[in-house]
Design goal:
Blueprint lengths: L9 H25 L2 H29 L27 H28 L4 H35 L14
Helix pairs in contact: 1-2, 2-4, 3-4
């Protein structure tokens, strides 16, 4: 994100945020479709949350600007949207861990964006703080899930007498 959100208009920031939630929703849905069971459910729930965030931001846009037709700002200084960071590679467990890592980074960035918006846009700080906390919650739950899968890989390596390196897992040690 640009270092100084003061340089960016509220309308641009809101449009950027709305689009980011849509991109994240699509990425999480794509991941959920490649998985099954509880892992799929996790990403469906994240997608649902991102869609909920988008709807709340669209309501704010309509309230402030009279419509839901938002502007997606272009140019230098804007980071990729939340969902742009999410690499979708779930064929193997260590690939799923990589997907979780990129989702964790995306959620960290989203938290930072909404936290900064709450500081900048005082009259809407309650909404932006709420979304920031939701994004932080996503980050924490994804970190916990990643740890669980890492433990599964470690246990598999012990049972099968395979080194961590052969599982493609050495970077986690």
């Amino acid at each position: 994100m640009r270092n100084d959100v003061e340089e960016i208009s509220f309308k641009e920031l809101l449009g950027y945020s709305i689009e980011g939630e849509e991109v994240a929703h699509e990425a999480y849905m794509e991941i959920s479709e490649k998985l099954s069971g509880l892992a799929s459910d996790r990403f469906q729930n994240l997608a649902k949350d991102e869609l909920d965030h988008k709807q709340k931001l669209l309501k704010l846009h309509e309230h402030e600007f009279g419509d839901k037709e938002y502007i997606i700002p272009k140019g230098e200084g804007f980071p990729p949207h939340e969902g742009d960071f999410i690499k979708i590679d779930t064929d193997k467990l260590n690939s799923l861990i990589s997907t979780l890592e990129s989702a964790i980074e995306a959620e960290k960035d989203a938290y930072e964006l909404y936290y900064r918006l709450a500081e900048k846009i005082g009259k809407h700080s309650a909404l932006f703080n709420y979304i920031a906390l939701m994004e932080k919650g996503h980050q924490v739950s994804l970190e916990e899930e990643k740890e669980m899968y890492e433990e599964i890989l470690k246990e598999k390596a012990k049972r099968e007498d395979i080194t961590i390196d052969k599982l493609g897992f050495s970077r986690y040690e």
